[in-house]
Amino acid sequence: MLHHKVYNKDEACFKTLFENTVMVLGHCFESAYLFNKLTKEELGIFQFYGDPSCGLVGKNNDWCLVGGEVLVIKGLLNHTLWVVNDLKDIYGLKLIDEYKALVLTDPWAESSAIWLLTIDFSSLSKPLGVSKVRDFNDYFNKPYSEVVIW
Prior knowledge:
globular, four-stranded antiparallel sheet, mainly beta, 0% helix
């Protein structure tokens, strides 16, 4: 009898957060995973409290971000994981360039904002820079919407 590796990405509970030609980033309930389509390697990223809401992979496939109640970044070359303690209740992510991303916190909260995350793997003392781009109150005190334009 042959045994086949069962990947989390193949489970019915798996929800894709981001996909490119090389990687699939997603989650089964609270657990986030990254699957490399070329090597068939699957990495557990983080165990969230509640389902993660968004994710992305860097243009060079060397890091990924996953957002939920917190924001985590996983360096894929050195397998380092950082929790970005400055940001909570992550709603959306946008890739700007190889090592920069925009982060949107809960758009219905009074404290909602858009943040710029800068990643510098060469700096061991401060590999992440976080700076506020602007407050985001467009959806504060408004009904829930599936689509948030930011």
